[in-house]
Amino acid sequence: MYRNHTCGELRLADENKEVILSGWVQKVRKLGGGITFVDLRDRYGITQLAFYKDVNEDLYEEANKFGREWVLQVVGTVQERSSKNKNIPTGDIEIAPSKVIVLNSSETPPFTIEDETDGGDDIRMKYRYLDLRRNPVRKNLELRHKIAFETRAYLDKLNFMEVETPVLIGSTPEGARDFVVPSRMNPGEFYALPQSPQLFKQLLMVSGFDRYFQIVKCFRDEDLRADRQPEFTQIDCEMSFVEQEDVLQMFEGLTKHLFKVVKGIDIPDFPRITYADAMKYYGSDKPDTRFEMKFVELKDLTAGKDFVVFDSTEYVGAICAKGCAEYTRKQLDELTNFVKRPQIGAKGLVYVKCEADGTFKSSVDKFYGQEELAAWAKRCEAEAGDLILIICGETEKAQKQLSELRLEVGERLGLCDKNKFNCLWVIDFPLLEKDEELNRFFAKHHPFTSPHKEDIPLLDSDPATVRASAYDMVINGVEVGGGSVRIHNSELQEKMFEVLGFTKEKAQAQFGFLMDAFKYGAPPHAGLAFGLDRLVSLFAGLDSIRDCIAFPKNNSGRDVMIDAPSVIDDEQLKELQLVVNLKN
Amino acid sequence: MYRNHTCGELRLADENKEVILSGWVQKVRKLGGGITFVDLRDRYGITQLAFYKDVNEDLYEEANKFGREWVLQVVGTVQERSSKNKNIPTGDIEIAPSKVIVLNSSETPPFTIEDETDGGDDIRMKYRYLDLRRNPVRKNLELRHKIAFETRAYLDKLNFMEVETPVLIGSTPEGARDFVVPSRMNPGEFYALPQSPQLFKQLLMVSGFDRYFQIVKCFRDEDLRADRQPEFTQIDCEMSFVEQEDVLQMFEGLTKHLFKVVKGIDIPDFPRITYADAMKYYGSDKPDTRFEMKFVELKDLTAGKDFVVFDSTEYVGAICAKGCAEYTRKQLDELTNFVKRPQIGAKGLVYVKCEADGTFKSSVDKFYGQEELAAWAKRCEAEAGDLILIICGETEKAQKQLSELRLEVGERLGLCDKNKFNCLWVIDFPLLEKDEELNRFFAKHHPFTSPHKEDIPLLDSDPATVRASAYDMVINGVEVGGGSVRIHNSELQEKMFEVLGFTKEKAQAQFGFLMDAFKYGAPPHAGLAFGLDRLVSLFAGLDSIRDCIAFPKNNSGRDVMIDAPSVIDDEQLKELQLVVNLKN
Predict the structure, then answer these.
(1) ipTM
(2) pLDDT at position B435, please?
(3) Which domains does chain A have, with CATH numbers?
(4) Interface with chain A: mutation pick from B22, B261, B562, highest number of A CBs within 10 Å
(5) What pTM did the predictor assign?
(6) What is the pLDDT of residue B431?
(7) pLDDT at residue B513 greater than cutoff 90
(8) DSSP-assigned states of every residue in B129-187
(9) Does B213 reach chain A within 8 Å, measured CB to CB?
(10) Nearest by CB to B167, which of A24, A231, A558?
């Protein structure tokens, strides 16, 4: 037996017990005077081994030779420490070893394996198996396990069945780019890896499975960013005989449950906001509502005072930064430079300081008097000491810029507390998005999303205004989940394909099996998918989803630890009847 | 609200309740005399809707037009049936509908959607979404969900963490053929889909994760059979600081638990048998122990009586078929023809009938007298009425043939009861397998399997005899799980690669990252993987794993429902810098 206790469980109550522990050497502390302490670590904690020269000279000499990350098995007796460590649960005791077996030695690790490490990103990714030894990294994965486990337990209780859908499926040219897999048994043909099990879960509804879920890997061959990986995990759900309201209730319940059991937080009922209002008040379809700072429109109040910049523009919008009237020139310049960055693209930033004495100071006070500025402030509900920040331009663009500014100001004011969680539903998304260049409509969500019943006639007359029965769950400005009521009627589905500019042949070729399935009694159904990686990141307060993935890939889609992807044998290519033809 | 009850839950106690149900029309029974019954079905059961002409003529007329598999929403009142159906839980009641909404109509399904269907395999696979509506098919998937769910709950309680390992990994030329995925971002390079997370789970042990599991899709590009699919699911497990005994205890515990909670069966402690004994007594490393019928060696007793066939051969083995002395000429011929089939390949079959009067009748009684035959019978523990069946030949081949015969006879005697479960561990597998043609050794399990400690010196002197710390869990002759203690020592691992004929460069190129990882303090570790598909099939009493997979592929690796794999756009190939080059 390698151990009968873990390194995290022994207490003073265990005094005088003979125990066996196994673990890694975290640290060897040679105190001098014939005393050496070794911290032995495993997943559960750290226990101190105490080697005293005058108790056992051989063991003491041996212990002085242990290096960091050696693997030891220790037989010894639990005893009370003379100098207790209140920072760790085992801090009252130490082990007096009677026997130590070195199970494995270790080379010096390329970075220190402690909560704070000296290793940079690259080296930690190359030696990810060592990075995973660090507490904060392991804790992220423990959290991930717990969230997945509790999700399953919650849904199972409510009669949801987890059904595995295939990973080797057919390619669908719509949406993001597929990863493909050449088929050796069917030369010249390819499987695709699923971007989501969308079609299969809808087929399961046709099959009468009625409450389906799956925690499942999905794949997208897209250029990567901090919150994107080529493979990611979804909590994928679908229900039959439900309306939008049922789905919102169900998954709001799941989310509250997760916050409660995983983080001990009670989340109130989720507010709901329409897509239109989200854009109007936050300039974003995933507003961070940990703080208010809603947009205020000032166009009408600014008009006619010969300030051409405002007069000639479509939209003038403001936010009120509480208590920021004291901002210095330098701070204001920083904000101006922030919104002028190319990725944000505003032309400039107008401010109004609401001074303590009730007067206003503004970058545009050449054009606007105290009375006008007071009217703006009133509409912004700004008080003395507040700072009003104004952006103008073409409505959609200016709203997006103002949204970025809002988040930046929120961050500067410390309003983006990672321990505070604000959840909401964004509903009533537009069904379609027009690509002006191609002069065609695309599905904003996907082609199976149902329009609002009352908007169906608009599909012919004014498609751009049709609202979808689609919803996103947004937490702290992160879209953690999204879904829709699906079309379950063949004719409406055909109509939808028509609006999307699919020929009958193309629709048949791509989704024929789904449309065929719908001919045999498809029930009304709706669903939702959570991004598990994002959900875990959010729960853990991480900036990147990479940190909650055991073995993530870098921005070039490479796993630098195992060095994949890589070239393969000619023999393998030959079997697949493929030739690599590199462009130069 | 589409429903407030399911079609499986209403009872006599609900009499007079107004309810809303939704579901599919299973059957319309027009009784005449103004009465029509409609069976409404959902995942939970069937409820009878009763339409009486004299109660509501319009609804009655409407109901007569309903077709099979239409989707209905029904508002009505629960009432007691006049003619009760004891075969279904809702058989005491019926619904008197006040309102029916047709949610969807249905074309006539291509096969009947009932427990026994008229649809052949091909049509049911093409319309799998309709096949899944059938009770027995859905029940297999419910069982699958339950087994997976209970496995997770059991392992979570014991501190196992589920960790997701990557699906896009590197190709490893050892083992079965990999599916590969061309990388667009790294042209000319390929990911591979994992045949198992073997390397990653061992890295997690190096990381100190100590108790890992994952229910995970794995992939093998092999030619397919009834019990093989290109994608399949494993319950993959690994533990640190354990010996073989710990692993056997742990997963024997899990298996017993699953039998208990899923099937209500108490399984006794699993017997253990060495690989050598399994071959000796059953001619198989996965013996079906629902019945004994062990092999008995007769070589010594048969020698020297001028029967050249036995005298000139290496092995003479017998099984005793209880109570089969009455077998007719025809039945004996059937058995002889069975063992002579090309896939079995025996030259012939010798029998000895133990007659009721104590005499013996044999196909070789020209050579052997009653006394000799009596000695054989004694060793076989055969009694009056039994039939002894004998096969001879080169030991290994003859044992395999006798194994097939044993299973055939067991089947004929009704000893292979699908409701009886016999579990056992097969241990002490050989570490290596020699390919005589290539004159090199292959790892029987995989190259990370640890040899028995006491056999390590034999790696140099007599590699073929080295026993591995490897084990299989066998239930009813099916290998449902297997694993091994791993090598955690770099030198032993290098030695192993040397025996397997890997050059240092090749070992480094393929497994370098694992060997590197082992330099930083690898703990002793061991693991096991269950085939979930096989486990579910076994629990469900299925002949093929295909029946417990929602959307399986056929023997050509095709999903005939979605018609995958398929050709992809030239544009996609161009982006991947690949050319299809079909041989003719």
Answers:
(1) 0.95
(2) 87
(3) 12-104 (2.40.50.140), 136-265+529-574 (3.30.930.10), 291-412 (3.30.1360.30), 423-520 (no CATH)
(4) B562
(5) 0.96
(6) 96
(7) no
(8) HHHTTSHHHHHHHHHHHHHHHHHHHHHHHTT-EE-PPPSSB---SSSSPPPEEE-SSST
(9) no
(10) A231
